[in-house]
Specification:
There is one protein chain. This protein has a 6-stranded mixed β-sheet. About 5% of the residues have low confidence. It is of the alpha+beta class. The chain has a domain of 123 residues: Orthogonal Bundle (Arc Repressor Mutant, subunit A). Helices cover 49% and strands 16% of the residues. It is globular and about 50 Å long. The protein starts with a strand and ends with a helix. It has 7 helices and 6 strands, in the order βααβββαββαααα.
């Protein structure tokens, strides 16, 4: 097993990631939530496998020969699984694998490190996942239709259910959209 040191780099901008995620939605004519993430994965030639991983491992992206497999922890909540799939699609969109095992086996793992916002690859994969599952334009429409107080748990929960994401992910997304629109 070999690991290579990555060169430090800046993550892609929010606008670039948004454009790339929107392209998938446009190509597949997806205009309403919940976003069919499995359909996007299939369009990106990725096969999803649900596996009961030990511990906190949420998922992994495996590239071998011409096969792309996204492993998802079958023990996690379906909303978490959807985010994991979208996150791994972010790695597929932007990154080569960091760990090389055997021949040409590359993988990116989704775990607690990815949420720390210190690794550019993880930041991009999280941003891509948010853009896919809670598209900027759709969230802006939601906010224009009815202002949502991010401290109103009932409203956040309703919106999270509509998009099939966690309330925490929706709160974070709404906050980021408001900052981008007003900032």
């Amino acid at each position: 097993m070999t690991t290579g040191k990555k060169e430090a780099r800046k993550p892609r901008t929010a606008a670039v990631v948004r454009r790339d995620a929107e392209r998938h939605l446009i190509d597949l004519k997806i205009t309403q939530p919940p976003i069919p993430i499995e359909r996007i994965a299939a369009a990106m030639n990725a096969r999803i496998q649900y596996v009961p991983f030990d511990g906190e491992l949420a998922g992994m992206l495996v590239r071998r020969d011409k096969q792309i497999i996204i492993g998802v922890n079958s023990l996690h909540h379906p909303n978490r699984q959807r985010f994991t799939i979208a996150h791994e699609l972010g790695h597929l969109q932007y990154h080569e694998g960091e760990i090389h095992v055997d021949r040409k086996l590359q993988l990116n793992r989704r775990d607690q490190v990815s949420s720390l916002a210190i690794d550019p690859d993880e930041m991009e994969a999280n941003r891509f996942a948010a853009e896919l599952l809670m598209p900027f334009k759709m969230i802006v429409v939601e906010l224009k239709a009815r202002p949502i107080d991010i401290e109103d748990g009932v409203e956040i929960k309703k919106l999270a259910e509509k998009y099939q994401v966690s309330a925490q992910a929706m709160t974070h997304r709404i906050t980021n959209v408001i900052i981008q629109v007003t900032g």
